[in-house]
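B., you asked whether I could sanity-check this one before it goes into the benchmark set. Here's the sequence:
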Amino acid sequence: MGTLRVISDSDEPFADRAEAGQLLAEQLQEFRGERPVLLGIPRGGVVIARRTALALGADLDIVLTHKIGAPFNKELAIGAVCEDGKLFVEQTIARHVGASRDYIARAGTEQLREIAHKVELYRTVLPKLPLGSRLVIVTDDGVATGSTMLAALWAVRNEKPAEIVLALPVGPPDTLTKLAEHADRTVCLKAPPFFEALSRFYLQFGQVEDEELLEMLKHESERRTRQ
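And here's what the prediction gave me:
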């Protein structure tokens, strides 16, 4: 298990995702100068990642992955499909829930079909950065059950980065403890003991549309060409 650092148990909401990203960057100053890769989970997590990346002078990218759910509990992640078509399975969990090879193969194929459109849409604008031997910081606008983030961490680990840092604005303590087992370091701004819907922790929590996301990716693509 990696280290877990929680800044506060406050339940006061952030103004918006931009503020959360800026506050997160303040807790990640030790990585300034190391040129980390900030990975955001589309779509809301990319707003967080972009603000944090700009504040740290880091590269920005997205993590495209879909979780494979257990046979009778789709919310429970037993594996993940990556955008390059690779399949990761957490064998211990898969055996525990009775997920057969055929089930995993079918579920993986289904999730790959769903992710293919996103890969085509987003990667036309921003090519994927290789993560091997890089310091990678993974973020989202928050977690509840953590299953989507868990799949993302599995997918990132599959690329053999030098270190994975999980950085989050908010999440419930039990979920953070679980996720910290799959990152080298975890930092969370707020872990309130009574966790409600994620939207409760933002005064402005509007849906991020593809148009806005593509605009952010376009800006990052242009930033890469200037470096």
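One thing to flag: Residues 49 and 174 are 23 Å apart (CA to CA). Otherwise nothing jumped out at me.
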